């Protein structure tokens, strides 16, 4: 539908705006035609259809990461510089997430450090991605390090970020540490939600601590 609408605009001599261009890119990527999306983005930039902006590049990078083409996503990231634009925290966070999902932790760290060198401020989403990506595979030390970085940079965590770390702690079987972190959430003014409670309930259940399960209910 997005493709048809875009083509109709061109046939009628209507110059597509940024929204139309980006919608077309999303459509092609959702169809899985990354090669066509790649060519389309280059054509739009060449014709200056309001496409030489960071949004269209970020859309392509996100789509390529989602279909598993990390190498081409990195190519797009480099292309941003060549076209005179500057990647933002969204660009970096998207690629960092893709690296973490592939278990390429060193490259994720390299990109995070590159963000800092370029004076880009990691967002709460960036830290969620880093903490979750490490904690879920048992890399708790690294997850806690990023949590510490977050605190040092005055980025206030949200309940999702805290739950990512809590999940990792529970998965590692560290129930006492999980309770300590749970209490810290409350002390820091981040009320645990139902998922926070569910993680503690499930871990206590696994350990046969039924009294604790009842207390949490």
UniProtKB/TrEMBL annotation:
InterPro entries documented for this protein: PPR_rpt, TPR-like_helical_dom_sf
Coiled coil (UniProt feature): none
Repeat in keyword set: yes
PROSITE patterns membership: PPR (PS51375)
Gene3D superfamilies to which the protein is assigned, alphabetical: Tetratricopeptide repeat domain
Keyword hit for Manganese: no
Tree of life domain: Eukaryota
Pfam families, per the entry: PPR (PF01535), PPR_2 (PF13041)
Keyword entries, A-Z: Repeat
PPR repeats: 53-87, 88-122, 123-157, 158-192
Stated family: Belongs to the PPR family. P subfamily.
Matches recorded under PANTHER family: PENTATRICOPEPTIDE REPEAT-CONTAINING PROTEIN 3, MITOCHONDRIAL
Name the UniProt record assigns to this protein: Pentacotripeptide-repeat region of PRORP domain-containing protein
Native source organism of the sequence: Brassica oleracea var. oleracea
Lineage: Eukaryota, Viridiplantae, Streptophyta, Embryophyta, Tracheophyta
């Amino acid at each position: 539908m997005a493709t048809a609408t875009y083509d109709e605009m061109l046939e009628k001599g209507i110059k597509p705006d940024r929204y139309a261009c980006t919608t077309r890119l999303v459509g092609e990527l959702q169809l899985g035609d990354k090669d066509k999306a790649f060519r389309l983005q280059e054509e739009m930039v060449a014709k200056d259809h309001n496409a030489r902006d960071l949004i269209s590049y970020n859309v392509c990078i996100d789509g390529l990461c989602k279909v598993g083409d990390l190498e081409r996503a990195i190519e797009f990231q480099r292309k941003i510089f060549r076209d005179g634009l500057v990647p933002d925290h969204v660009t970096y966070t998207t690629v960092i997430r893709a690296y973490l999902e592939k278990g390429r932790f060193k490259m994720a760290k390299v990109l995070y450090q590159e963000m800092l060198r370029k004076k880009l401020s990691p967002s709460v989403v960036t830290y969620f991605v880093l903490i979750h990506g490490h904690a879920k595979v048992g890399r708790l030390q690294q997850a806690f390090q990023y949590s510490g970085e977050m605190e040092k940079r005055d980025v206030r965590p949200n309940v999702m970020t805290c739950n990512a770390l809590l999940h990792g702690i529970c998965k590692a079987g560290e129930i006492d540490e999980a309770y300590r972190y749970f209490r810290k959430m409350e002390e820091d003014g981040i009320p645990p939600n139902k998922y926070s409670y569910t993680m503690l309930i499930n871990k206590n259940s696994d350990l046969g601590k039924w009294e604790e399960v009842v207390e949490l209910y």
